[in-house]
Amino acid sequence: MDTLIITGGAGFIGSNFVRLALAETGLRVVVLDKLTYAGNLCSLEDVSRHPHFVFLQIDIIDRSAVEQVFREFQPLALVNFAAETHVDRSIDDPRPFVETNVVGTFVLLEAARKFLGSRESSVRARFRFLHVSTDEVYGTLGESGFFTEETPYAPNSPYAASKAAADHLVRAYNETYGVLTLITNCSNNFGPYQYLEKLIPLMVLNAVDGRKLPIYGDGGNIRDWLFVEDHCSGILTVLQHGRAGEKYNLGGGNERTNLQIVDEICACLEKILPASGNPAMLRQGMLRYEQLKNFVPDRPGHDRRYALDASKVRRELGWVAAHNMDAGLAKTVQWYVEHGDWCRKVQSCKYSRERLGLATESS
Ligand code: NAD
Fold this sequence. Notes:
about 375 residues, about 15% strand, binds nicotinamide-adenine-dinucleotide, 3-stranded mixed sheet, 13 helices, 7-stranded parallel sheet, alpha/beta
């Protein structure tokens, strides 16, 4: 049976992709994950007994462990989700971002190169290394325009810079060594299983608990949102049909300011758990979730606007996002409200929803 290696498969997007890959590819899925604060096996509970699922707790910067996995499973392809992903944390301490995102990707590429070096040309021609990247590598936009695959890289945060560096390495291994690679650059994801520090789950959980909803700066920063299942279907499409050596933007065309997202979350919550009946709100004499909105100092170097032109993947591979933003957001809010157990398990003393990323001290 052919094997697909998925790194970072216990994280938000990775766990959603593992589910899709098991359901749709017929491949053995081998997940490599270090299980950092952001990765948790409870995000994979429903697939843990699947006969084609294997989990290995491995740090992708561990060269000998990664090479052993290549020797043992002789993969047909690898999809690299493993990363440090929170911009605020990259401001507080960039080191793990360089280690995992840059050095870790390098270790995976080297292991792939070594593995393929001793294989016949038909194996080398079938193998794919798909690197999952972000639109943040392109920097920031003004009020108009879109990032295309030709937009020069101009990362502004340590997170974005580490992802950009990894993208360049991936491209170089394709050009120099003939390791056939693909890169996807995606916009902001939302949906089930996202770690609680990110905007949407944080706002839902804080609102339910009657805690303040911290909005950075004036709340006018714009992101282009994509439902996580759409991102996963886009990655699978690129993996199966993309042209080796190419990069593809994956975006939903759903531009929203952060303030709009918070307002939409409050409106969704009023329908499923009205503030006027929520004891955590009533204790503070508040009757509407929007009363919790709290403008706080902005993130240093906060990119103002991201918007992706995803016409290449539509034109070449026929992929488009299937989910409507408002329906996807409502489904997401409901999921976090209904999955208190999952939220408690992944949070487990690792994060108390405190403010991160003000660059006030170096660690
Ligand atoms: P996440 O933080 O939820 O999950 C990251 C996973 O990687 C975790 O399971 C973690 O344990 C694992 N990991 C971290 N360091 C590791 C290491 N050294 N070795 C092995 N595993 C390690 O991240 P996510 O939001 O699911 O993002 C997945 C990928 O998609 C990342 O590469 C990210 O840059 C990219 N991306 C994310 C978004 C988004 O909106 N979340 C958008 C575009 C691109």
